[in-house]
């Protein structure tokens, strides 16, 4: 009866993604390692892992009320080895169990097989019976198996029926009364991106929905810090949780920056200014990188000052979205400083990036794809060729290190996380980001091989492993749309020391198209990486050209005219 109730309890007592800085002075916790599992096999004990995060409320609560409880420790004493894993520092383990929220509690047998997986906070009242019941009956609980993965394919498109089902589901969970998707409101980059893109293409319903959502999200911008919380527990946006991971700052700052240009609402610009101020004043490290997160809820741990390549890259992308929309050059310079820090302090000798100063696992896909995305954004926002070179090198490392040749998808970690765990996994969001990055890189470089990598990755994203397992997939819609439509391409032809060129480029950057290839060609630097357009000489000074594969606009010399050219190009591409 106890074991039959475990799955139900894991839903009833789930906490929002949560955890805490750890005090282990008494040596209660062991480390995640093969040595720990070897000890468990020798001593015939179970391993119980608590997977936590710095900023998570319920991790603090469970550490205080459950893991420190005398009766819990008595139940653990003879049969268990407790293991603590900080999920922020171990993406390979974190992404394996992220669907169980933080804290996630996993019980392994002495042979390393998963027996029980628990979601969120458990009080001693419910945790002790599970510990005792597992000792009496260590039969693994039969959790639903993911759909089988299909072989690698370049058949990348969704069918009309599949696309319709995804949109139907997204529509079904939209909160018409309050805005946002679902009752507990999450700041989700994928959904915000998709809705803003649809609004930009003229979808009036999505335009109304995203504006209502962004207005509700304003309650999640912390009054004292400017940080954005990742979740609001009430449908009416009245219960924001003070947990501030970096990926949420990227999502919110990017969305408010684009929306401020699209809708000309000063509230969006004000929100973007506050979030940018938080990143600049609180999260930017003096040496150039960014800190990883902040928590002000239970335990109030404050800023987690560890510096990871992934979080630094997310901050770079966010700050550049703000720069593109506002022209605040300080933001661009902050992004450049952070990128130089990451290259100096997180580069691997063989290419790519590590997660931290010293990684216990890895390298990880998340760090590398976020850095490649950020470096491409730097190329777009500055016109600097060095950033395209760096992005290409990182993409080559990803292609060499993380592609699963049997499916075309991308694995989370380059090497097995630990020998007791099953084969390497693939995480959907990182696969979407990787597909989009390779597709855009192929446009900037003209390299067909990058396009083929993107197509094979999209083949994985449109396979049963994704479509049969999940319903809410705005990011898959976005990736497919970008593969089906070439990016809007705008090039400024003019010397980089000419203020007129800079004004034209500034106007091109501020135009809020999501799928955009922006380039600044100073002919003194030699040909562009992808010289797919033969731009005419224009004797009257710098000019802007909006182009497709088959035609270009007339030269534009006034910044205020660029938007109309890009919009007409968008219509010509039938986006």
Describe the protein:
Helix content is 47%, strand content 10%. The protein is built from 21 helices and twelve strands. It has helices at 6-12, 34-43, 57-67, 70-77, 91-97, 124-136, 160-172, 189-200, 204-217, 246-263, 266-283, 309-326, 329-346, 365-382, 385-401, 428-445, 448-461, 464-467, 474-484, 499-510, 562-573; strands at residues 46-52, 80-86, 104-108, 114-119, 185-186, 231-232, 243-245, 293-295, 302-304, 488-493, 516-521, 543-547. A four-stranded mixed beta sheet has the order 2-1-3-4, with helices on both faces. Strands 7-8-9 form a three-stranded antiparallel beta sheet. The protein has a three-stranded mixed beta sheet with strand order 11-10-12, sandwiched between helices. The termini are far apart.
Q: Could you say which overall geometry the principal axes of the C-alpha atoms support?
A: globular
How much beta, percentage-wise? 5-15%
The number of distinct β-strands equals 12
User: How many domains make up the coordinates?
Assistant: 4
State the gist of this model:
This protein has 575 residues and is an alpha+beta fold.
Provide keyphrases for this structure.
single chain, 575 residues, alpha+beta, Glutaredoxin, Glycosyltransferase, four-stranded mixed beta sheet, three-stranded antiparallel beta sheet, 21 helices, 12 strands, 47% helix
Topology overview:
Layout: H1 6-12, H2 34-43, E1 46-52, H3 57-67, H4 70-77, E2 80-86, H5 91-97, E3 104-108, E4 114-119, H6 124-136, H7 160-172, E5 185-186, H8 189-200, H9 204-217, E6 231-232, E7 243-245, H10 246-263, H11 266-283, E8 293-295, E9 302-304, H12 309-326, H13 329-346, H14 365-382, H15 385-401, H16 428-445, H17 448-461, H18 464-467, H19 474-484, E10 488-493, H20 499-510, E11 516-521, E12 543-547, H21 562-573
Parallel strand pairs: 1-2, 10-11
Antiparallel strand pairs: 1-3, 3-4, 5-6, 7-8, 8-9, 10-12
Helix pairs in contact: 4-6, 8-9, 8-10, 8-19, 10-11, 10-12, 11-12, 12-13, 12-14, 13-14, 14-15, 14-16, 15-16, 16-17, 16-19, 17-19
